[in-house]
Amino acid sequence: xxxxxxxxxxxxxxxxxxxxxxxxxxxxxxxxxxxxxxxxxxxxxxxxxxxxxxxxxxxxxxxxxxxxxxxxxxxxxxxxxxxxxxxxxxxxxxxxxxxxxxxxxxxxxxxxxxxxxxxxxxxxxxxxxxxxxxxxxxxxxxxxxxxxxxxxxxxxxxxxxxxxxxxxxxxxxxxxxxxxxxxxxxxxxxxxxxxxxxxxxxxxxxxxxxxxxxxxxxxxxxxxxxxxxxxxxxxxxxxxxxxxxxxxxxxxxxxxxxxxxxxxxxxxxxxxxxxxxxxxxxxxxxxxxxxxxxxxxxxxxxxxxxxxxxxxxxxxxxxxxxxxxxxxxxxxxxxxxxxxxxxxxxxxxxxxxxxxxxxxxxxxxxxxxxxxxxxxxxxxxxxxxxxxxxxxxxxxxxxxxxxxx
Amino acid sequence: xxxxxxxxxxxxxxxxxxxxxxxxxxxxxxxxxxxxxxxxxxxxxxxxxxxxxxxxxxxxxxxxxxxxxxxxxxxxxxxxxxxxxxxxxxxxxxxxxxxxxxxxxxxxxxxxxxxxxxxxxxxxxxxxxxxxxxxxxxxxxxxxxxxxxxxxxxxxxxxxxxxxxxxxxxxxxxxxxxxxxxxxxxxxxxxxxxxxxxxxxxxxxxxxxxxxxxxxxxxxxxxxxxxxxxxxxxxxxxxxxxxxxxxxxxxxxxxxxxxxxxxxxxxxxxxxxxxxxxxxxxxxxxxxxxxxxxxxxxxxxxxxxxxxxxxxxxxxxxxxxxxxxxxxxxxxxxxxxxxxxxxxxxxxxxxxxxxxxxxxxxxxxxxxxxxxxxxxxxxxxxxxxxxxxxxxxxxxxxxxxxxxx
Lengths: 405, 405
What we know:
By secondary structure, chain A is of the alpha/beta class.
């Protein structure tokens, strides 16, 4: 609570709000910005001029509108020029992308991750992917920072990842933000040194990053309570509550894969028994299909393919996993009353193959209003969700204070 | 996003912030207010003078400090003068209290609720309790509004209950707040007409109101992620995430009692099978103790008493319910990574009698960091939590804009 922000603070907040608006919504006319941001025309003009001078946005006349009068100029983010690098460290693959302001994927690369290779040892591979992408970066481009989404990684409620991803324009950006909050965790440090020595690097969890991306510019845009389920080996969730990520007190929220759904059920890798993961994880699907000696993303997707081609044991496996998928979703729907549940990672294919089983479980187990209100969806951004979400983290610093460089 | 608040808006925000501070923290010296609110001494002096002139706070010299220099005046809320009425409509009882600014219970009353009596038909009883309390209200007192906590009632994310209870000072209080948001639900309307025709009345859920109270001034003060479990017949939760209530998209979040923990288990009143409520609800406890024909709060508490006195079947029942209590709490701990779980309603006694069973389940089922971080507690405000929480809703309007009357 201050006596009130200074004119300079208000100007910076407004610059951030305008840039954020076109980052999220894409090309927007000045007239629409005037109304969306509650600022007058001359202020919008001045702010746009400043952002254009910094080459963060460009302005041009719209196509012929057919209406009389001078048309309102259209402001768009400089997506080809201002970019972040995004990485995802998944169970059996490593991905990297160059993502422009506005969430545009400009380039992307992928490599296999040898089974069990620790995240730290994936760094040379990621650095190689970055180097490849860097060759095609045009002169005059601006690199703002990097984001990394890691499978199974805690969510750091007090780390920079969270602070930068909240979406709200801070009333008073904290200059010491980057260095505050205790010692940097080892993975962040190593990632920063190798991949982004000169700009911030933000590390998040794949489920969280995907949830953020779908919430900002995907299937869940405009919804406040969203559960993004992600399966990549195990099962976890990125959960959005009131438009912000649920992190819990220590960054460990979202471990829905370890909700016990079958007391005394199969042993789980966590040490407990009958966790949701033991009945809907990739291993459970493979085992139910009689392929318990296979493993990994591709093997799991082959079961769903086989089911689609009429393989009876694969079909039975998909039905069984679909039932359990609906079971756990019903519990989450009763707990959160979400607007939307998104089936991501390799749960996408299972959901698409067994949507009727999932819905049927929901109908028998979830309370009527909550089950009527929830929308079941697959990621609108597809597999890009994790990378686009990681890039959102990297853009956050720029959006909070666009001319601070 | 505005060009910036006006001086008048800033003044009103600051008045609200100061009043909220002493409402939450009690008597506070001017020096402490200066530092807590980030305002200078003369501003604090002027704001305090305005609030004192409106008789919302009073100032007096502190007791002898032993330090040199003029002691800082102490500002306190006018708890005896400025008050709300709070009501709770529970399964088998009706309660009412008069609660002063600062959360002080000034008076309280209670009556039985005949089994199954609809909330609307409880109104004459509540009106009677109010009338009794009203007799002892001193002349010059100020009634600010009423709050009602109803067992098993949805949480209205878009209703006034939520808007008023978020705790944040709105940057621009909406003058049409009271009349916006669609038609008023019937219970709110009836309650308002009978109990508070001249001032706002806010309706919430008992679990939610209790969670708010414990979060503002009870066991969970200072914690961001809190689960308040409430058992009053059935089981539900008031959940605080990032310091705000989890309502879900339609006001139905927190129905943790219908999380299925035992596939194919006992039929639940919701139509599903094996819900958490079927194994930890009051009926489950009574049934496990061989008292399945009894019902209600007192009967449930007698089982816990009997267990404490050595009754073997009561002890077995408490152990069994304690096991299942820990089971569901472990699931919630994995999902939310909460700072704290509070055992309220008649779960308080079960938890106290079976804390070791609960903790043991948590240790075997919850992920290590999350279980180490969670604090298990009973309500610091005891049974007053629901009433104090209901009063918080009623004070919210005053705290948002103290001189708007």
